[in-house]
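pls ignore typos typing on phone
alpha-D-glucopyranose + seq
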Amino acid sequence: MKRIMILSAAAFVLSACCSQPKFEGPVYLNPNAHVEERVEDALARMTLEEKVGMTTAQSKFSSRGVPRLGIPEVWHTDGPHGIRPEVLWDEWDQAGWTNDSCTAFPALVNLAATWDKEMSLLYGRSIGEEARYRKKDILLGPGVNICRTPLNGRNFEYMGEDPFLAGAMVSPYVKGVQENGVAACVKHYAVNNQEFQRTQSNSVVDDRTLHEIYLPAFKAAVQEGGAWSIMGSYNLYNGQYNCHNKKLLVDILKGDWGFDGVVVSDWGGCRVSEEAILNGLDIEMGTWTNGLRGAASDSYRNYHMADPYLKGLREGKYTTKELDDKVRRILRLIFRTSMRPEPNYGRFVCPEHYQAAREISAAGVVLLKNEDNVLPLKVAEGAKIVVVGENAVKKMVVGGGSSNLKTAYEVNPLEGLQNAFGDKAEVVWVRGYVGDTSTSYNMVDTGQDLTDNRSPEVLIAEAVEAAKDADYVIFVGGLNKSAHQDNESTDRYDTFLPYGQQDVIDALAEVSDKFVVVNISGSPVSMPWEDKADAIVQGWYGGTESGNALADVLTGKVNPSGRLPFSIPFKYEDGPIKTERQYPGIKEEGDQFWQTHYDEGVYVGYRWYDSKNVPVQWAFGHGLSYTSFEYSDAKAAKASMKADGTMKISVNVKNVGECDGHEIVQLYIADPVASIDRPAKELKGFEKVYLKAGETAMVTFEIDAADLSFYDVAKGGWNAEPGEFQALIGSSSADIRATVPFELK
Ligand code: GLC
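k done
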């Protein structure tokens, strides 16, 4: 590395003395000056009012720049799945632009289900290009809150139940976005795992659980992804609002992790002036105008960090210490984004983005069950395929809350199948059930009228009649991002299918022997009807190209390689949450807040089910392929590893089936002899490997002491205790193919 550094230094000197014209003008405007030089120069030129001005919103989605110095305002935009349609200056109402129909990329849970870091980088680059083209500086996403309860309304916006998977998958997305000179804003920091009473709920979490489960994905986004901004969440943690939580923002994020970016409040998440000023909030957004449309035009001056802050500074209540830190961070973000050295202009709704959306979504589709290889579909000339269900035709890029999108088009599952078979087979659709027929979500119109006043009996009879002589029956149901069905600010009430879908499945199973059920959802759906279906596919909110992506998998054009990013229980009650106190929390007489106690500790998701030997319907990491893989010769490179060393664990994987495909080899660590209770296994590695039919590859994992550690509260840090460990290598958390013991010295 040293040699390379010398070379580049020489090259720099050479180029500096020859080609670069001497920049005339203030340092902060010099694109070739070091960011920190630009920051200090700009800061020194700003007045007190200008500094305070930068720390608050000036409109619904922008915060102030410094007009006098030619430092632009900062434009924020939702969301994690695509660039939200423009809203009015101070309202949530649509601005009615005609040039802001974006590419809707798959929901982040769909990305997580790919277990593919390359796909995550492609996603980040693509959505970053769209944000750049729309001249946005901060993309309000991705979200990485852990799926603690299957009922959380925003699981679809996040990356599953495991911190290692979420951390590994979020970092490439962040890098891809930021390559475009757009800041990713990782949210919602932190322990924000339910929508119920989200603005008045206090998460009571012990330190070990906080560090082992709820922080790692954020830490990875900051330290591996290099995130330039973070969004504080609405809820409280240990009694303090998270948008100005000293422990989370000052001590951990900016202290321990060395975060040099900007903390943005959630819209309306800032509540207390003094805490906001002293506890690390940098930009206050959406106060009072958080969807309540209560804003008076001058409400921005009343923001907690606007005139009250200026008043406090003038009265000497505050020095400029905190203010200068906030402004340095905001300037740093501006010099990384709108005033970045290399201007680029991004791309919007281009074929490459549509193709990326299609590939990413297809790579995350999970084949749960495939009896007698009923899939992929084998469709003869003139065959009849009956598609049943509202989710086969319902627009899904809308809904869900702030992540909803306006797109130029959306290919639904019915269209995807018609595109695949249209000229060869008869592809007909029947309603099957009526779900949500709203024509607008969060002020984005669907352009659909799904009104249907027929009774369930009539609808089922119609579906059965159509199915009787069909070669294949494909039921497409699930949830739909309407209220309580995967939607911000509303959690679900249970994990079963709504709208009487099970009755339709039961009836269709009676008349079809090639019956495929596609569940489209962003959170776990229990399937008591599992034995009724010959094949079951977990589909997702796949974005603009969702229908084509699903058809690619059903037809075999894409061999499914998706793996579940969360466990799917037989029923909600099997999970780790047993009391109201745990979820949705309890509100004592006189207490302003709901108290949500994370009593289950680290036993979240498969950590709970595996450690307590509770069977699940579908396990974390589960997913079938159209081929199959055998594992052999799993071994450790040596019998033991030192605390400051590493250990290589390798395994041979062979594709023993008829078609090429991807396998996702998963590495879990078990610590059978530990001084404290630890989960039966914890994901610490995964590799996606492509194997042609008959091909074998060796997959090698390299682990270190950090991978073996638990968070030791007594020590206030990570602790890998010497002794025996086991590397569990498998095709899912419930399909361990090899156990490799080794010792930590
Ligand atoms: C919402 C969401 C947040 C979103 C913000 C702006 O309430 O919690 O994810 O980015 O407000 O719409």
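The mean pLDDT is 95. The pocket of alpha-D-glucopyranose is lined by residues 78-79, 140, 187, 266-267, 402 (CB under 6 Å). more later
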